[in-house]
Design brief:
The chain has eight helices and four strands. By secondary structure, the protein is α+β, with helices and mostly antiparallel strands. It has a four-stranded mixed beta sheet. Bound molecules: zinc ion (ZN).
Length: 159
């Protein structure tokens, strides 16, 4: 009897694992994790239940099993859920992917240069594929590059 119950629990456990894995696989963000898509960095983070850490999509660490993965829109979300930042991709440090961010900021600079009117922070953040908060922080830390690249005063206004 007991044996059968344990068996049943095991079956149920297996079922929910499959469901969790399925939920992760159908999430478009999983594709970014699988592809280690650097352009998705800053747009979301993923945590791994078994290791207790959270990562950027582009993290080079061993790929987690989908049933152990959860997605978070911010580092704070992941930390509130009890995860710590990965030591490898340092998701909570903007300098961790400085090169990547510089590319995005440069892209926004070109947009600023082309724009006839002043762009809102939201517009620029969306163009960089970042949250307005993250974009603002990144933009500020990349200011010296921005100043050299974009001569338009619109670029400096944000700082
Ligand atoms: Zn990582």
């Amino acid at each position: 009897m007991q044996c059968r119950m344990i068996e049943k629990e095991f079956e149920m456990g297996k079922g929910s694992t499959a469901k969790l894995a399925q939920a992760t696989r159908t999430d478009p963000r999983w594709a970014a994790v699988v592809g280690r898509d650097g352009s998705a960095d800053g747009t979301f983070y993923y945590s791994v239940r078994t290791t207790g850490v959270y990562c950027r999509p582009s993290c080079a660490s061993r790929r987690a099993r989908p049933e152990n993965v959860q997605f978070h829109s911010t580092c704070r979300d992941a930390e509130l859920a009890g995860f710590r930042p990965c030591k490898r991709c340092k998701p909570n440090q903007t300098t961790g992917s400085a090169g990547q961010n510089a590319t995005r900021i440069a892209r926004v600079c070109r947009l600023i240069e082309r724009a006839r009117t002043r762009l809102s922070l939201e517009t620029m953040a969306a163009h960089a594929g970042m949250s307005p908060y993250h974009f603002h922080r990144t933009f500020k830390s990349n200011t010296c590059k921005v100043r050299r690249r974009a001569s338009q005063p619109a670029a400096a206004r944000l700082t």
